[in-house]
Design goal:
Elements (H helix, E strand, L loop, with lengths): L1 E4 L3 H11 L3 E4 L11 H16 L3 E10 L10 H7 L2 H10 L4 E11 L13 H4 L11 E6 L8 E12 L14 E3 L2 E2 L5 H7 L1 H14 L2
Parallel strand pairs: 1-2, 1-3
Antiparallel strand pairs: 3-4, 4-6, 5-6, 6-7, 7-8
Bound molecules: inosine 5'-triphosphate.
The site of inosine 5'-triphosphate (ITT) has 19 residues, from strand 3 and helix 3.
Length: 214
Amino acid sequence: MLRYVTTNDGKVREAEAYLGDDVAAVDYDYTEIQADSLESVAAHGAREAYEHVGGPVIVDDAGLYLEGFDGFPGPYSAYVEDTLGVERVGRLARAEDERRAAFRCVIAYCDGDPFEASPEPVDLDDRRGRDLDADDRATATTDDTVAGSDLPVKLFAGSVPGRIVEPRGEGGFGYDPIFEHAGTTFAEMSSEEKNAVSHRGRALGTFAEWFAGR
Ligand code: ITT
């Protein structure tokens, strides 16, 4: 059984809405390393989660990228949510009239076995979350070989563009109330509606397609 390792109930709801009974959630707080890419954080987490669970795992690292703030808070989104808070991040972006933003999500899979090379590598700009004007909802996969570990990890990325607005909606989690896509905030959407357009939905989609063939 595939385990989705996270401490975030909101992510679990979305993964369950997408993957159904094929995945079970494990509440385990793996080490989130300090790094400037979601890929590195997710890859490190997947290896640690695999060691903890002892079977196939996915972990998911996500962040909000404000275009006018050079991608801030990006990989530091959890820290910024805990310190500044979502509403103040929203107020800052609106006060500076820097509303263009994107969410990015990287899902990392590890089952202890090696993989064939991916045909569609993540390019460097995408890794850094700087191509906010790129395809509407870009997705990519890559293999990760972080020095210091020989456990292979497969990465699946998804992103979605949007704009920062005054908080609206009761659903979702994290920055969802201030992130509007096509006129609706993510907090105004059901999990299914959010998955249909979101960074996580895109990453889960490319992962599920690949995993079905594994
Ligand atoms: P795990 O690492 O245990 O999975 P987490 O909540 O720490 O849970 P992340 O590090 O990936 O997860 O989250 C980074 C931040 O981005 C955190 O503040 C989340 O609330 C926020 N976030 C992640 N995905 C989001 C989404 O789909 N919508 C809104 N906010 C999101």
